[in-house]
Every structure is written in C-alpha cells, then in structure tokens.
Specification:
This protein has 156 residues and is an all-alpha fold. The protein is 87% helix and 0% strand.
Length: 156
C-alpha cells in the first residue's frame, strides 16, 4: 500500500505543478497579447495625430502658396514661411515611421506647395476654378494614410 500512497502523492504534486504552469503560461500569453495591442494602439494614435497635423498645416500652406509668391513683400508671408518650416518638420517625423507610400505622397504635397509658391499669385476666383479643375492636393496622401492605418488595425 505504501507504493500506492507515494504514487497518489506524486500524481497530486504533478497535477498541481501542471496546473500552476498552465496558469502561468496563460497569464504570460494574455499579458503579452495585451501589451502588443497597447503598443499598436499607441502607434495608431501617434500616426493619426502626425498625419492630421500634416494635413492641417499643408492645407493652410497650400492656399497661401496659391495666393502669395515668395517674391511678395508681405509681412504675413513671414509667418506662413514659418508654417512651411513646421510642415517640413512634420514631414520629417512622418519619415521616421510611415510606409514608403505615405512618405512618397507627403513629399509630393511638399513639392506641390513649393512649386506653387514660385508660381504666379492666384485670385480667389482663380483658386476656386483651379479647385474645380484639379484634384485635391492632399487626397493621395490622405488615402495612403488611411490604407496604412487599416493595415495596422488588421494586426490588432
């Protein structure tokens, strides 16, 4: 009978050990999954904020570039050029983490604004006509950002 008692005791110890290890493994997997999900959520939030900042600054600067020329002698243009510096800073932040497609589209927006600053000034009416005849200068960038964010959401 002594062998049966040892066997039962050993089985009880092994059962407790296996149960404890299973609980530990389950907790570890759960915590790792939660941590990964939290990291991805922070990444999405960072990208959404940065992309929104870029869109906001670029929209304002695009209109300014259409109605002002770099050769204009206008005091308000100085503050807008500071806005251009800010936009380039945001674009550089985007280059740190964005996909190649988003970076390409952001650079296309920057190029378009720079070219427009060198072009002839447009009146409000000409700007309205241009809007009707041309595509949204930020559409490709926005669509690329949305696609990238959808990809990250799929991982979650």
């Amino acid at each position: 009978m002594g062998g049966v008692e040892i066997s039962n005791g050993l089985a009880a110890i092994m059962g407790a050990l296996v149960g404890g290890l299973a609980s530990l493994a389950s907790t570890w997997v759960s915590e790792r999954t939660r941590h990964k999900r939290d990291l991805l959520q922070r990444e999405i939030s960072k990208r959404e904020t940065t992309y929104s900042d870029f869109i906001q600054h670029a929209s304002k600067l695009y209109v300014t570039s259409a109605t002002h020329n770099l050769n204009d002698d206008d005091a308000s243009l100085d503050s807008e050029l500071e806005g251009a510096v800010s936009l380039y800073g945001i674009a550089s932040r985007i280059r740190l983490f964005a996909s190649d497609r988003v970076i390409k589209e952001a650079e296309a927006v920057l190029d378009r604004i720079l070219i427009q600053f060198g072009a002839e000034n447009l009146s409000v009416e000409q700007l309205r006509e241009k809007k009707l005849n041309e595509s949204d200068p930020l559409k490709a960038f926005s669509v690329s950002c949305r696609g990238e964010l959808k990809e990250i959401h799929r991982v979650i």
